[in-house]
Task: structure prediction
Amino acid sequence: MNASFSGKKLLVVGGTSGMGLATAKQVLQQGGSVVLVGNRQDKAEQARQALAAEGEVSLIVADLMTEAGMQHVIARINAEHQDISLLVNAAGVFFPKTFVEHEVSDYDMYMNINRATFFITREVVRNMLAAELKGAIVNIGSMWARQAIGATPSSAYSMAKAGLHALTKNLAIELGSKGIRVNAVSPAVVHTPIYEGFIPKDDVNEVMTSFDSFHPIGRVGTSADIAETITFLLSDQTSWVTGAIWDIDGGVMAGRQA
Result:
């Protein structure tokens, strides 16, 4: 076993599927322990079982869309996990919709996730500072925060993710001298369960394949693709990287193909 994360505890907000779950697996395989935050008990238990052979896994189940859910996560962190020194903010939803079709409930959905991300991160950082723990935070942003895509109108989602990119840079400046690095990844289309929210499950593979040519590399991303980079940013191998927002996008942001 690679022991890069031996003795370190990782919190993954939105860690019961997709990129968050893949990152948790890699950190466990490299000697760390993980705490997964998810919004469904059954899904969280499935994630725990999937990772159980890799190492120590704890669960926190809460609805991050509500303030009560956010406070539950904070309370559990302070009661049981004040030793967290690694954090991945992976919670997210994605429902493409034109600007004029957006309702207040759509807007609130994205901003409530940002609220939970903000204050859960604040609590982890407070504990790290109090214990003088050094570590790293990685936020999962989005290419949609950097570039609008006509085929997938997503103004509220893009606005929320752009805020997460801005938070990344602010925290990097504030926390750099404390030994806490803060970075973000900015993926393009990645095949994760997030698309099952608005595409029938049986159709997801076909829809994902239709986006292959959108990426200069010729395929959509996988959760493991993104997790490899997140794990790298969490590790001491990137000890001089902070405030970065890395395009992990198969080349989309490099320019136009035609």
About this structure: DSSP finds seven helices and nine strands in the chain. The chain has a mean pLDDT of 93. The beta strands are 9-13, 33-38, 57-61, 84-89, 135-140, 180-187, 190-191, 221-222, 245-248. Residues 104-131 form the longest helix (28 residues).
